[in-house]
Design goal:
Helices cover 42% and strands 15% of the residues. The protein has 469 residues and is an alpha/beta fold. It folds into 3 domains: 67 residues, no CATH class; 176 residues, Response regulator (Rossmann fold), CATH 3.40.50; 169 residues, Response regulator (Rossmann fold), CATH 3.40.50. It is globular, with a radius of gyration of 28 Å.
Length: 469
Amino acid sequence: MNLLTTTGQFNIFAIIESAWFLCQCGWKKILNATIFLRRLMMGEQDLVKKEMDRRTFLKVTGAVGLGLTATSFGVPTLLKAEPKTIKIGSVQPATGPLAVIGQGQRRGNQLAVDYINAMGGIKSMGGAKLELLLGDSETKADVGRGEADRLINDGAVVLIGAFQSGTGMAIATLAEQRQIPFVMDVAALDDITQKGYKYSFRIFPTVTTFGKTACKYIEQMITEKKVSPKRAVVTNTGDPFGKGQGGNFIKWFKESGIPVEIVEHITYPLGIHDLSSEVAKIKAAKPDLLFPVCRPGDSIILTRQLLKQRVPLMGIISPGSPGWYEPSVIKDLGKLVYYVMDNVPWINPASPVYQQANALFNKKYGGYLDTNSGYAYTGILVIADALERAGSADTDKFLAALRTTDLKAQPMVGDAIRFAENGDNINAATAMVQVLPDPDPEKRVKVVLPKSFAQADYVFPAPQIWDRG
């Protein structure tokens, strides 16, 4: 029988039953056991340690079948006790303008938690199970910070999230104050890890990585296809990520020496419902190339307006944004989104880890594990790997394990996940993906660069948008 319940409280019925057994054991054992039980219930384990040697302790507890073992002279532990649970606080934008992505992020986090638990939990901690505590940033940085604080109060020993760079920054600041590790599965703004924080780690590429790599791919395509675009327009949302991504890309593009002039830079609010005037500006600028930084909602609105206003383009190439590969976008736009390119962190189709995770994702949720949900899945793998090596959820030991991460078995494009001193993943990488015709919508987004990961050849220049339907 167990003196403690699963919540750690004393089981009064077990204590009464134990007393009945004690009545059959003689007055000396009754006296010793009574003292033991009273002091145990009063939380006086230290007195028990001082007044009862190991042999007496074992006689008192073992003789009456209390189901306890004393591995030390501290608090006794239950025989065959269930492994403890390690709580992970997940803050994602499950509602608001980024709800489609946020819900996918949650699914990626949860899928990895379920997988780790199904494989036996954290073995170095006796099979401890992971538990995902859910927080919703509502696509607002201040709300995300408040949710992270709530999850810490609810017992989270590590945080994961938060997709938006602004929310990531707010949570990183909180993590330093609360001294709780924070693993950013998705968040790109460079500044988050430039403040000397010790508790924040990012597995996602930075905005600078996006900008430099996008320019490299664009230059490669122009050279290989022997085309000469002259004019370009950059558009982006007005949130921290959109402004950072758009502005940084323009900087690196100008420094790259690519002989294309950026003639217009258009910024609009996140969550906008009408882009007709912005598209009119694009058309008036007469660009050969459009470089948009979009989210799923505005990418759909933008594409339909480009069709409606018949804006001629050599190609739509995103420097890196989640607006073009989401399953909902592919389904909604159909052929209109064909040939759009996006420079993004992406899944590695050849990775056994990805293949297994993708099959599990499809079975549980339908669809496929994309770049965002893939990184959400990877973030949990990083946490589980660190816990396994630390053998403890103690913050100092866990942080030390995170800093020495060398995770080779992961589902994304790039080499082993390793963290620099500032918490950035030094091997974070991007790939150029393109939406290509395929009868199966789930197979339309394919890696085209770098060629070492390519699933198909890229199409550039692209057919005009009104020739695709």
